[in-house]
Target: Alpha/beta hydrolase fold-3 domain-containing protein
Amino acid sequence: MAIRSGACTLCAGWTATLPCRRPPATVDRSRRLVQPPCLSTTFPPVQMQRMWALHAAAAIQVEAGDEVLLESPGHFRIYKSGKMDRLNDPTVMPAGLDEATGVTSRDVVLDADTRVSVRLYLPKLPGNQSSTKLPVLVYFHGGAFLIGSADDAAYHGYVNALAAAAGALVVSADYRLAPEHPLPAAYDDCWAALRWAAAPSTQDEWISEHGDTSRLFLAGDSAGANIVHEMLARAAASGDGPRMEGAILLHPWFSGSEAIEGELDAVPVFNGMIWSYTCPGAVGGADDPRINPLAPGAPSLETLPCERMLVCAAEKDVLATRIRAYHQTVAAGACRAAWFESEGEDHDFFLGKPDCESAKQLLDRVVAFIAEG
Model:
């Protein structure tokens, strides 16, 4: 998708790859507006360097003098005043039986006040294996902490396919979005969902009957993969958090205040702008450990509470350099960290092109990782 800052425009699918979601109070779940994700995510180097030089240029004047700071056409528009417009309605899918995969889903509200909920996905079990215990995978959707939802059509379709292929019971977390609920609201919601899924005293009947919480996995894409890291960090810091067998980070959104070797200068600039909007209270700005796990003084990546990790990147994703650095640091510790890169693809391509060969290969790698045991 294209992101505009001031007088310049750049492509940035890493910030948001989904149809936008309005704040919960205004979502009409009876509507079915089919608007496929926009995934134009390549950053042409010449264009990027030009925009780096122009990023302080005069902003677009709109609405009685308010100025546009960032715009993702068809997704969101952020103003210098702090206001944000979500520019299109979501395509939301109801829970229920998915005929294509045989997976059944249903929604569970965890907190009536905050409306935090999860969508559970139970794959079809053969008649003679109804008592089989399945690995439990907690999934966090992406969307720059600004858009997206567990019931968005792209995520609902992906998680159905993942649950069926992996033979896993999936708990897809639906968390509160910025700017109405700045970070750490999303992190707190996802932490609550993880602890709910893992705790015997609060388990849903599907989890207690069909789930094996001793085989607990975390997974997420983009901002959702960032959440995966934060959940691991919280579990390590708390001392009593759940122990994860595995963590799957799909194209994680990490950044920093300055470009690292091999990264274009403009990338952390725009990442930092969005981070400061979603988490205005961040200590250290874009070097807050939650967005920059490699920042000086960040908690060690060598003691994350998971036995193994799969870190996935896309060759054309401008985040790939930083994702690789994260993987290399984790791999130096106690967690066995595997690497998978999709050649010729952009950030979160698998959501918009689920039937392409690269998406199938990525899903196969995720399934194999869960099955490794």
The two ends are 38 Å apart (CA to CA).
